[in-house]
Specification:
This protein is mainly alpha-helical. It is 57% helix and 0% strand. It has five helices and no strands. It is globular, with a radius of gyration of 18 Å. The N and C termini lie far apart (48 Å).
Length: 134
């Protein structure tokens, strides 16, 4: 019984850490969105921005991806669209291939390390997009 407060403290710390990690991941994904996507898709993801009128292919409203897919966020399709290296290209192929751009940023991490960084950035961004669905 003397160890019960220690176990409760450890459990509380673990729960706090999970919440902090979740909040951090959210903010990282949002930062990635603002840096990589916000110009074309708008700050709120609705693509309601003056810049989008200058593009040859109109960017989609990213807040309705789940609604347009019977209420289910198409996570794998979104990841493939963002990455772009799988052959799936977004917006009629006018969207940048973010997987290549992210890999160029991470080239000092080596082949495998760079790929982990790319996948992490793409996943953070996809998770953020899932969180802004209407």
């Amino acid at each position: 019984m003397t160890h019960l407060p220690l176990k409760v403290g450890i459990a509380a710390l673990a729960l706090f850490s999970l919440g902090a990690c979740s909040a951090y991941a959210q903010s990282v994904g949002e930062q990635e969105y603002m840096r990589s996507c916000g110009t074309c898709h708008g700050v709120d993801g609705t693509s309601n921005t003056p810049f989008s009128d200058l593009l040859t292919v109109a960017p989609p409203d990213l807040t309705t991806l789940a609604a347009n897919n019977d209420g289910v966020f198409p996570m794998l399709q979104v990841i493939h669209m963002i990455d772009g290296r799988s052959g799936l290209r977004g917006h009629g192929s006018e969207m940048p291939i973010w997987g290549d751009r992210y890999a160029d940023d991470a080239d000092l991490a080596g082949t495998y390390g760079a790929e982990l960084i790319v996948r992490g950035r793409v996943l953070e961004l996809a998770e953020y997009l899932a969180s802004i669905q209407q």
